[in-house]
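Task: complex structure prediction.
Instruction: return structure tokens for all chains below.
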Amino acid sequence: MKVLVPVKRVIDYNVKVRVKADGSGVDLANVKMSMNPFDEIAVEEAIRLKEAGKAEEVVVVSIGVKQAQETLRTALAMGADRAILVVAADDVHTDIEPLAVAKILKGVIDEEAPGLVIAGKQSIDNDMNATGQMLAALLGWSQATFANELDIDGDAAVVKREVDGGLQTIKVKMPAIVTADLRLNEPRYASLPNIMKAKKKPLDEKTADDYGVDVSPRLEIVKTSEPEARSAGEMVPDVDTLVAKLKEKGIV
Amino acid sequence: MAVLLLAEVNDGELALDATAKAVSASKALGDVTVLAVGASAKAAGEAAAKIAGVSKVLVAEDALYGHRLAEPVSALIVSLAGDYSHIVAPATTDAKNIMPRVAALLDVMILTDVTAVVDADTFERPIYAGNAIQTVKSKDEKKVITFRTSTFDAAGDGGSASVADAATAEDPALSEWVEDSMAASDRPELTSAKIVVSGGRGVGSKDDFALIEGLADKLGAAVGASRAAVDSGYAPNDWQVGQTGKVVAPELYVAVGISGAIQHLAGMKDSKVIVAINKDEEAPIFQVADYGLVADLFEAVPALTEKL
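Output:
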């Protein structure tokens, strides 16, 4: 079985986000970029399936600016076999919407025919939590979102999902889309020899036009603003003072 | 304009708070028709009919919808989508699973976690873990939306909407439910609780989380946890408060042994009053707290539990 993993290049999760003064978006120029953390978990899960003999090949795909090839190289260094870069934007500030990403991925999947797609549940930039579900819809495939545990059982995937009430286990027919939640696994770090080896692994370059997908946005960004700031209150010296303050406010 | 609103139904019971908040968020968008879906959904539909502002309720009751799997529920919503300009739901894990699938089937973009309605086409939503707020205008004819419930007040009761059955849609037969592992609890539900007491990595172990639970029970509060506490196995995943967990906005939020990572703040910074107890006086949680106490939680929490 072939496993396909879409990965996104996003602002590094340790970088403090700054809203541009003109309200046009978040400043991404000269900012450290990394693989979306949920996608790292997805890549790790795919590699573990291969190591367990349940998958033969792991293909990673990224859609966005040309620099996303660095993100793909990271996935190759972790252990993916091959990469596809679909260039769909020139400017790092252009975020391709999940619907367009799903359409391009469908094009890739029609050619690659994987048995399983593992995606991150959400990217930490637009926080949409949508691409996996949209891709499943376009392909007419089953979906198992927010995965906490994944097992392959013949031609089905058994997935334990993180839901509001706790955990839910479902069985989905393959081919299927699984989206990774935080506790699916702990991704590995790529070793230096593997980083060197990754430079020689195949990386195909395509464009959105190759798949006939119009990536123009459906959502027009009117403005981007800073959230309302919350200011610090007061420090209290002890528990008694805290209790008195809360009683004074009438909340306990 | 007309709104189709997917009610939150768990095992046949309406999640009133989440559903009523989505109703109030939808008010400006048109007449609201609530859709109650489940193996048992009639009672939930009747409960939804009493929410003020609901003009009609559709009930789709069938074993097929028993665990609200994404594929059959999405097919049902799409079969009903015809006349509605907006298809909406509260942003629960169920809706987050279902609604993007609905949007893609309709060839429209999804708007998730919407925090404000500007007009029928324009909405605000947080991005970058709440570090920025984006206002977006949808060019799609139909809008598919999930509302972040913590930013809307629940619609009141006193409604008397008509209740009708909806025809079931085809079964895509792609997935099946195996089991649920949900802890039963007498505590209030995390996202609708008036008071939330949360513990972080500083609590140190699963056993010591009993301290947090003791304080919560004294206050009649729900229990929350930081991602670090859940990752370390001190608390179950459904207690996680944060950008990728639950977003809460109670009257009182007590953060114990939580440093205050941006990811956590995104899930609780709209709380009315925030109390932070942490032994590290440099912890970022103190920058958002109304009352901060630098103390060893193993002394402060039992003392607080006793004195309240």
